[in-house]
Amino acid sequence: MSETIRCDIAVIGGGPAGLAAGLYAARGGMKVLIFERQMSGGQIVTTDWVENYPAFPQGISGADLGDLMTRQATGQGAELVLFVNITSVRSNLRGQWLLESDTDASYEARAVIFASGAVPRKLGIPGEDYYTGRGVSWCATCDGAFYRDKTVAVIGGGDAALEEALFLTKFARKVYVVHRRCEFRAAAIIVQRAAAADKLEFVLSSVAREILGDGTRVTGLALDDARTDCSPNHLPRHSRESGNPALSSTEEIHTLAVDGVFEFVGVDPVNELLAGLDALTSTGYALVNADGSLAGADSCDGLFAAGDLTAGPLKQVVTAAASGALAGFSALQYLA
Ligand code: NAP
């Protein structure tokens, strides 16, 4: 028989935003449940090293940072509910919110904070699905060690792509960063570090078209030439100009011989639970007011959102934690 468990504040998502929200809400004396469908810590635990979270001048591993945040939230009284997927949130018409899950239990909360974060985007090219787990990956920290002395391609030109490419140089013999433009979106300091790394080579103005394999494992990446002239002013190295032997070409299509492909082409917000509430941007991010409350119709009373799920110019651990703190604080004020 299913049971209904009551709490004051339900937090959906156990990454930096959800953990900070839970920390603040629990310190306000509320019964707080933090739901996480995987391990706690969120995307950060798959990041090798975090250098820009204040208070860690030497940096800290993503796993350690996630662990510290988890221990701090639970140490202050928030309760973690792991491996439970909340499948719907709806009003019970008595001023509370009913949360259904993929288990027998359902939950009732007076306020809900959505902090479900974002998931890595897929390219949607041929070979991607088939070779997932057979050479295609979205997590260098998880899979990097499988590529010791091998050759890999990293697709993308943002912070994640370049940071993870640098991490992969610890294992791989060669790391190609395949990017569709000549300029990188990543922070300048990371671009400079990548450009200086011995085992790393940029393949610019190149669009991944297909992941190739022998039926068992990835063997290469087919690339379309975006036909932009990436002059030497842009970056110091370019595969096609350096006569890279791993790159074979027929007119505009090039094949890069690699053993693995890591995709870091952005993230998509996990917004399914908000589908019925008129509070999403055109790109699917949660719209929030200045206090972190959902900016939808009146039916959003008692609903808040934080972290990578929300619209905003900066997606960092520090901004996720800060917006979680704000949502936790605002939920307390709402309940008061
Ligand atoms: P991002 O900043 O959105 O960059 C995505 C990259 O993938 C861009 O270079 C983009 O190319 C490329 N891309 C997108 N769609 C593509 C496609 N279909 N084919 C080929 N390339 C494609 O995403 P991210 O690097 O995952 O980072 C997400 C957020 O987390 C960002 O706000 C980032 O700053 C943050 N983050 C921060 C850190 C850090 O501070 N240390 C580390 C990781 C992530 P274009 O540039 O041409 O659009």
Protein described:
The structure is a single chain. The protein has 336 residues and is α/β, with parallel strands linked by helices. It folds into two domains: 4-120 and 267-335, FAD/NAD(P)-binding domain, CATH 3.50.50.60; 136-263, FAD/NAD(P)-binding domain (3-Layer(bba) Sandwich). 20% of the residues lie in helices and 29% in strands. It has helices at 16-27, 62-75, 140-143, 159-168, 188-196, 317-335; strands at residues 4-12, 32-36, 49-50, 60-61, 79-82, 86-91, 97-101, 106-114, 118-120, 136-137, 151-155, 174-178, 200-203, 206-213, 218-225, 247-250, 253-257, 260-263, 267-269, 303-305. Strands 1, 2, 5, 6, 7, 8 and 20 form a seven-stranded mixed β-sheet that branches. A five-stranded parallel β-sheet has the order 10-18-11-12-13. A four-stranded antiparallel β-sheet has the order 14-15-17-16, with no helix packed on it. A hairpin with a 2-residue loop joins strand 16 (247-250) and strand 17. It is elongated, with a radius of gyration of 22 Å. The two termini are 34 Å apart. Residues 233-243 have low confidence and may be disordered.
